[in-house]
Amino acid sequence: MVSNSLHRPTLVLNRNWQPVNVATVARALVLLWNESVRVVDPDDYQLYDWQSWSRLAPRAGEPFIRAVRQRLRVPEVIVLVEYDRVPNPAVSFSRRNIFKRDHWTCQYCGRQPGGDELTVDHVMPRSKGGVSAWNNCVLACLDCNKRKADRTPEQARIKLRRAPARPAWKPIYARAFVRIESWSKFLSEAYWSVELET
Ligand SMILES: [Zn+2]
């Protein structure tokens, strides 16, 4: 229960109550302890600092965190106290996010053959010192991957459609499948469905 609760997502609002990020409950509690945020009670929008939050007993059936002397309620929404304390979001480098960034499209020929026919290609091959990073990994179809083999695009005379980079979108969009009921008050339907990659 403890670790599960600490890894649950917490919606982060800026001072204008606009959603800016998703943090883990563990991070949210650190921010609360540091007085960088207040917890928002989604029922009545009341704000809690660490002192007042830690005095609340968890409600029946609600997830909680067992601390040394007490059980803490799990915050679902927090609001930043200052503008300049926005936690810096970074898109995690994962297979799933590479597929999302490259729109399930081979970055050499532009085809969309489907997930089974796509593979993550190292532009500069690993055998030549290429690293696994946003700027060196792209989706390639099996044909292009075979054609390129263990060579650079120049050596293989195959053109990369665009230079790969870390996506600009924030984890909140990548993780849109995580949906907490109380968040609906802060996020409109449009917010969830609109593609915000820039
Ligand atoms: Zn291809």
Q: Can you offer a commentary on this structure?
A:
The chain is elongated, with a radius of gyration of 21 Å. The strands form three sheets. The protein has a five-stranded mixed β-sheet. A two-stranded antiparallel sheet has the order 5-6. Mean pLDDT is 83; it is low at 173-177 and 193-198. It has eight helices and nine strands. It is of the alpha+beta class and 198 residues long. The structure holds zinc ion.
Listed once per kind, the bound small molecules are: zinc ion
Strand content: 15-25%
Q: N-to-C SSE series?
A: HEEHEEHEEEHEEHHHH
How widely separated are the two ends?
A: 37 Å
Mean pLDDT: 83
Q: What low-confidence regions span 5 or more consecutive residues with pLDDT below 50? A: 173-177, 193-198
Q: Can you list the strand order of the major beta sheet?
A: 2-1-7-3-4
Shape: elongated
| Sheet of most strands | 5 strands, mixed
Helical amount among residues, as a percent range?
10-25%
Number of strands: 9
How many helices in DSSP terms? Answer: 8
Category by helix and strand content:
alpha+beta
Question: Rg to the nearest angstrom?
Answer: 21 Å
